[in-house]
Amino acid sequence: MPSRRAVLAGSAASVAALAGLGGATSRVARRPVPARVHGEADARIGFGGDAMLGRSVDERWAGSESDGSAREPAGVWGSTLPALRRLDGLFLNLECSVSTRGERTPDRGYYFRADPGWALPALSAAGTSFASLANNHLLDFGPTALADTVDHLDGAGIATAGAGRDRAAAFEPTVATADDLDVGVIALTDQSRSYRAGPDSAGTAWLPLDPERPETRERVETALEAVYRRDPDLVVASLHWGPNWEVRPSATQRRFARWLVERGVDVVHGHSAHVVQGIEVYRGRPILYDLGDYVDDYIVKEGLHNDRSVRVELVVEGGRLDRLHVAPVEISDERVEPATGEVAAWVRERMASLSADFGTNVEREGRGLSVPLVDE
After folding, report:
1. d(C-alpha 200, C-alpha 64), whole Å
2. For residue 279, what is the enclosing H or E element?
3. Helices marked H in 74-132 — which ranges?
4. What is residue 351's three-state secondary structure?
5. Mean pLDDT over each residue of the chain, to the nearest integer
6. Are 332 and 307 contacting, i.e. CB atoms less than 8 angstroms apart?
7. pLDDT at 376
8. 3's torsion region: left (phi>0), alpha (psi -120 to 50) or beta?
9. 259/209 Cα distance (integer angstroms)
10. Angstrom distance (rounded) from CA 77 to CA 336
């Protein structure tokens, strides 16, 4: 099977000029539908939203790694842990630094930092393959804590992208492993411009996530080219984007997500709104506009139920991206639990209703939902 880079570059028909790019070209992949990975692999890859392990979550679970403790770091995942361990990999947005060092960035309303003593064993216990660092809290405790976070996660074997010691490092993609699959990842954010990395300063991969912006097109296409050179099985774009508390993506977000798929991205992994948004299937690829909050200590907004979200599992069968399983979850006492009863019903109805806006076919599957990626 040819590499993505070969598919993208191999024919004049797959290259189209995009107005306003100053003579540069924008590659548009001719992608197979249904989407496939190399070979005939079977896999199940999980995607969650924001994992905020700081503040009260940190207070509850710090020290749980110690001998004789009645708690274990993996307790933060509650009764979802067996389901997480059945996955071939888990992709999350890590909404905090992982460090015991650093100084608070002035004039920030909230500061999120988790002790690596328990946070790293917790992430490893969940089978975390990738943690996005492109968000509005990675620099809460300055460049020292940011650097610690990158180093700690790397030491734990967890791939990261979206933040770094300078702009080049922040925008550098990564390749995560999910069983036998290599998953290329880019991570971007349009939140907290003041946290953006500079040519010689630490920060995040901040961009206005709008395909009509020439700088955005250039930077994203450069990052994707770097991914394709490594010839992964799948490509994920992890995006921390959009305003809080909005249950529907903006028109600009929809354009950007589709633009990414047209350029070879297999999964758009959205987060930041603190509430779930719908799922769109575009060219056989899932766009997860926002997966809400997976675990945190936030006050619950009346009517929005930001303590309820989903874990989305991408099911690959025989090398084909076959379907999504959508598992309702609920945050309770600084840990995440499977949603049941009325809560699970609310999540199912909300996800089905919001996904219907995109014409997405949603089916009941146990306590959750199934979204086919292939027309039988």
Report:
1. 38
2. strand 279-282
3. 81-85, 116-125
4. helix
5. 92
6. yes
7. 63
8. beta
9. 11
10. 5
Give the DSSP letter string of 128-158: EEEEE--SSSTTTTHHHHHHHHHHHHHHTT-
Residue 221, classed as helix, strand or coil, is: helix
- 186 φ, ψ to 5°? -115, 145
CATH 3.40.50.720 fits 4-372, yes or no: no
What confidence category does residue 30 fall into, taking pLDDT thresholds of 50, 70 and 90? low
3-class DSSP state of 73: helix
CA 65 to chain centre: 26
185 and 156 in contact (C-beta within 8 Å)?
A: no
Instruction: Please name the residues in contact with 131: beta carbons below 8 A apart, sequence gap of 6 or more.
Output: 51, 92, 93, 94, 123, 153, 158, 159, 160
Q: Is 318 exposed, middle or buried (0-12, 13-18, 19+ CB in 10 A)?
A: exposed
Helices in 250-340 by DSSP H: which ranges?
251-262
Tally of residues, the chain: 376
pLDDT band at 34 (very low <50, low <70, confident <90, very high): confident
Question: What's at 362, amino acid-wise?
Answer: V
CA-to-CA distance for 85 and 141, rounded, in angstroms? Answer: 31
Beta bridge partners of residue 185, listed in sequence order: 174, 236
Indicate whether this model's pTM tops 0.90.
Answer: yes
